[in-house]
């Protein structure tokens, strides 16, 4: 288990990330200038369909200002900053990658949101929170890196209040094997894809009832086709975080979707009462 986590950590190791971010941001904005989540959107939304997907997931999850939100696998914090700015809610993010957490804190200072957001380095398989602490848990493009899904969904259920909601947006197996390298894993060694049905079968026994279920593959394919037509997104983009081959990894995910190997799933579940 430690080896598998280590492999994933290695993929997101991003040495010197905060320093790199400082340098690329300095090329466009003065250090004292307050940035908005939209300005950082091409850089800090590490999933298919970027900011639009986060906005849609938040709407489906029913986020409001009074709810406490946990973003599991929060990356460099883009989704958390967007949610706090849009809804006024408090958001906590946890991520396995220390450089990502460091970068998330830095970017959050730059957007002036440090009072609303908290980022911690931790594994999704061992969340450092008491039972029943959150109203909403989000999981965006993270599950495919997690080998023990039963434990992942149990941990998410544990930290949710009964009646709380779990919203997931993930890549799933569709027809055949994935072709690597991909944005979350350069080889199959750290990729643990499930089909949409197997994902549901792993989530429900952890104590969840399904509220919404959406196959977003077609929307993702349209997005990838537009991306291919318009060329690389303006700088700063996710290449700064993941390295110069990131455009190639992204294009390869697009190809896997077009070939029907992979799909994109959005789903929302309610945490069932623990004594039911
Ligand atoms: C593709 S990125 C998505 C980041 C973020 N959710 C977003 O959409 O912008 C996947 C993230 O999951 C994190 N991750 C992978 N396995 C994890 C684990 N076991 N526990 C916590 N975070 C994990 C990675 O470090 C990485 O930041």
Keywords, separated by commas or semicolons:
single chain; 276 residues; 39% helix; globular; binds S-adenosylmethionine
Summarize the structure.
The chain has 276 residues and is an alpha/beta fold.
How much strand content do the residues show? 15-25%
Could you give the count of β-strands?
7
The helix fraction, in percent, is 25-40%
Q: Which cofactor or ligand species appear?
A: S-adenosylmethionine
Global shape? globular
The Rg value, from CA coordinates, equals 18 Å
Describe this structure in words.
This protein has helices at residues 2-11, 17-26, 41-44, 50-61, 78-87, 98-110, 149-159, 196-203, 217-230, 239-242, 246-258, and strands spanning 68-72, 90-95, 117-121, 134-140, 160-173, 208-215, 262-271. With 276 residues, the protein is of the alpha/beta class. Strands 3-2-1-4-5-7-6 form a 7-stranded mixed sheet, sandwiched between helices. Helix 4 (50-61) crosses helix 5 (78-87) and helix 9 (217-230) crosses helix 11. The radius of gyration is 18 Å and the shape is globular. It starts with a helix and ends in a 5-residue tail after the last strand. The model has no long low-confidence stretch (mean pLDDT 95). Bound molecules: S-adenosylmethionine (SAM).
